[in-house]
Structure formats: structure tokens, C-alpha cells
Amino acid sequence: MTAPSTGGLPPPIVVSRRDAARLEALIDSPRWQNDATAEALLGELTRAEIVDEADMPSDVVGMNTRVECIDENTGERHELTLVFPNEADAGAAKVSVFAPVGSALLGLSVGQSIDWPTPQGRVLRLRVTGVTRADAD
């Protein structure tokens, strides 16, 4: 699986040190060994700017943030919360960071877009339009 991109190069991303550490620990666990999505997520973490929690911009998609985005190809709006795999719940719009769209959105800031191919073969061009911290479970 290749990393999603916009016009060739992926947009710059920012991830908090705490989120990066928790995600790297999950990726290293036996459950996620040799998993293509986990490998793609590790690639995203490798290229991310890692910052302390206090320095994390409020308009950046992180773990347990509510994300508002629009598919620039169709105008369709989406709202979801980016969560760890054990918290995923499609009915509550809680998307795992290990899902392809979850790993694509991690670290993006408001205004950034990313292209992401769906399993149905369609390409979504998601632009982040809003980010708010979700209540911790």
C-alpha cells in the first residue's frame, strides 16, 4: 500500500509525542505485524513532525479528535472521530486510525487535503474543514 498523496507529495503532518508513542507500540504488537495498514501508518509516523502535547496545534487531526471533512470531488461532508482500534464503532462514526482513511487523516490540519482510494475503486479527495477534541472515553 502506498501512502496517500496530493499531487505527488503527501502534505506535511504533525503528531503529538504521546499519540506517536502509543501508535508505535500498537504497530509493534503481534496483532499488527505484517499488516499493510499498520505499515502505512508507520510510514506516516516516520514522516510526521512529532511535537509535545502542549505544542500540538488545535487545528490538527490527532487521536480522539472529531474531524469534519469534505470530499472535494463530490461535495459530500463527513464527520468522524479518530480513535484507537479497540474504540472503533462505525455506527457512532468512530474510525480506527488503522483504517485506511483514519491513517490518511492523522496529522492533517484544517485546510489540507489528501487523496484516498476507496475499496470500491473511487478516489476521495478529503479536505479537513474542522477539528475539535472529542470527549475521552
Automatic annotation (TrEMBL):
GO BP term (any one): DNA-templated transcription elongation
Segments forming domain Regulator of nucleoside diphosphate kinase N-terminal: 11-51
Molecular function terms, GO-annotated: DNA binding; kinase activity; RNA polymerase binding
Top-rank taxon: Bacteria
UniProt cross-references to InterPro entries, sorted A to Z: GreA/GreB_C_sf, Rnk_N, Tscrpt_elong_fac_GreA/B_C, Tscrpt_elong_fac_GreA/B_fam
Keywords annotated in UniProt: Kinase, Transferase
Pfam families membership: GreA_GreB, Rnk_N
Residue stretches making up the Transcription elongation factor GreA/GreB C-terminal domain: 57-132
PANTHER family, A to Z: REGULATOR OF NUCLEOSIDE DIPHOSPHATE KINASE (PTHR30437:SF5), TRANSCRIPTION ELONGATION FACTOR GREA (PTHR30437)
Stated name of the protein: Nucleoside diphosphate kinase regulator
Organism: Luteimonas wenzhouensis
